[in-house]
Specification:
Helices cover 32% and strands 15% of the residues. It is of the alpha/beta class. The protein has a 7-stranded parallel β-sheet with strand order 1-2-3-4-9-10-11, covered by helices on one side. A hairpin with a 4-residue loop joins β7 (196-197) and β8.
Length: 288
Amino acid sequence: MSRSKQLKLGAFMRPVSIHTGAWRYPGALPDANFNFPALKQFIQKLEQGKFDAFFMADHLAVLNMPINALKRSHTVTSFEPFTLLSALASVTEHIGLVATASTTYDQPFHIARRFASLDHISGGRAGWNIVTTSNPDAALNFGLKEEVEHDERYVRAREFYDVVTGLWDSFADDAFIRDVESGIYFDPAKIHVLDHQGKHLSVRGPLNIARPVQGWPVIVQAGASEAGRQLAAETAEVVFAPASNLEAGKALFADIKKRAWAIGRDPESIKILPGALVIVGETVGLNT
């Protein structure tokens, strides 16, 4: 019996349009990246159109580009993802809310707590896009003189994932009894102290928030390097895959699925979403 297939659609919304000059288009909102009423309308329209997810990318520094190019870019200002998505959760009902969070410049306790909170606020719609952050200027914003070496960032990312998911498992789903008569708020037998000691991270736990609605928020990954593909195969449920052409896309698809199978994961459990820049034009009559 063949499996039924369902098209999955996610909107890449930071910036609101990937096209550098989109903010100048006639009728566009030049400040759309930093305009909450507009973003509210956009996500509600996407939800009406049956999109699966609103994908909020993020940068931890102004983009590293020549100033003559940067001064023309609408990426220079944008909301912090968790603040925005928490607000958008209250005006939507079904669409997924995916935020980028860096494993290089943040701490796993922070990430676990923020995504657990977003998952509860949204009723189980949060997703974590795992990134290692490649912009060298980001390092300068976090007390480093140069960025962490590429492969070492991915070693830390893999450990970071284990810690965050472990923290999400701090409480059993039914740990919170809240028995008014007995005065017992939670069952101590259903709390788990992580006590992680690793190469890059030391985290005791437990997380001070109930287990997320989904158990674990959806894991998204977009790395195309050797290390990035392996991280995707080991951790991701969704892979954002902006390939340069069809053959490259096919090769990336096959490679990640093969890696997943090799480590015992069901390749079908990983959804691979190719990136597409859609330009809508006027309808033109067909020649008969």
